[in-house]
């Protein structure tokens, strides 16, 4: 089932998510719905707060990035088919020199800005079977994970912009929160309390 994506301005996007356990109700169905919702919106990641749930859960599928011709064949291969579920994730290390990449967000449609992040992360998480992992990721995969991880920490990519950039996009953000935007996927807008 395709779920409505929560738009910028909804308080749930600013809350820190809580850990979940194996008893979390209907987790398999929730994950199916999240992947369906993400693919329907042409996203590469989706976090539970973006569908209105303040829990530490996000999904990633970087396959759409794998046909970027500016990437090396090795990078394309790493991105192709990289599909993961992250439960109760904790980034334990970020390394390297920060680099800029133009990011967007399904909760903030039609706003894209350069965000600086470190290129390499070490992350602990549970998969969909609650099996623990500690992994190192780098490049675009690390970036997608960092973006989604921020969501479960109550942080949006726009929070990482300079005060000048924030001022420049303020009007567009207000419009998104009021539902004054055309999107190709279902959204829930805080100021209108209605779904489209």
Describe it.
The structure is a single chain. By secondary structure, the chain is of the alpha+beta class. The chain has one domain (5-195): Alpha-Beta Complex (Peptide Deformylase). 26% of the residues lie in helices and 30% in strands. The protein has 4 helices and 10 strands; from the N terminus they run βαββαβββββααββ. The protein has helices at 27-40, 73-79, 139-152, 163-177; strands at residues 5-6, 45-47, 57-61, 83-95, 99-105, 108-117, 120-126, 132-138, 187-189, 194-195. The strands form 3 sheets. It has a 5-stranded antiparallel beta sheet, sandwiched between helices. It has a 3-stranded mixed beta sheet with strand order 1-9-10, with no helix packed on it. β7 (120-126) and β8 (132-138) form a beta hairpin. The two termini are 15 Å apart. The mean pLDDT is 95.
């Amino acid at each position: 089932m395709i779920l409505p994506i929560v738009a910028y301005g909804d308080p749930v996007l600013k809350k820190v998510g809580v850990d979940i356990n194996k008893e979390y109700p209907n987790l398999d169905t929730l994950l199916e719905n999240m992947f369906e919702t993400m693919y329907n919106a042409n996203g590469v990641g989706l976090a539970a707060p973006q569908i209105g749930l303040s829990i530490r859960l996000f999904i990633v599928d970087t396959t759409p990035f794998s046909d970027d011709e500016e990437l090396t064949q090795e990078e394309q291969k790493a991105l192709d088919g990289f599909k993961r579920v992250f439960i109760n994730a904790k980034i334990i290390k970020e390394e390297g020199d920060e680099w800029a990449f133009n990011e967007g967000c399904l909760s903030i449609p039609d706003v894209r800005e350069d965000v600086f992040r470190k290129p390499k992360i070490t992350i602990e998480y549970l998969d969909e079977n609650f099996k623990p992992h500690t992994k190192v990721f780098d490049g675009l995969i690390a970036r997608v994970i960092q973006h989604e991880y921020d969501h479960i920490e109550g942080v949006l990519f726009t929070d990482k912009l300079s005060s000048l950039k924030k001022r420049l996009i303020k009007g567009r953000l207000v419009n998104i929160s009021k539902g004054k935007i055309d999107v190709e996927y279902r959204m829930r807008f805080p100021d209108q309390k209605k779904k489209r």
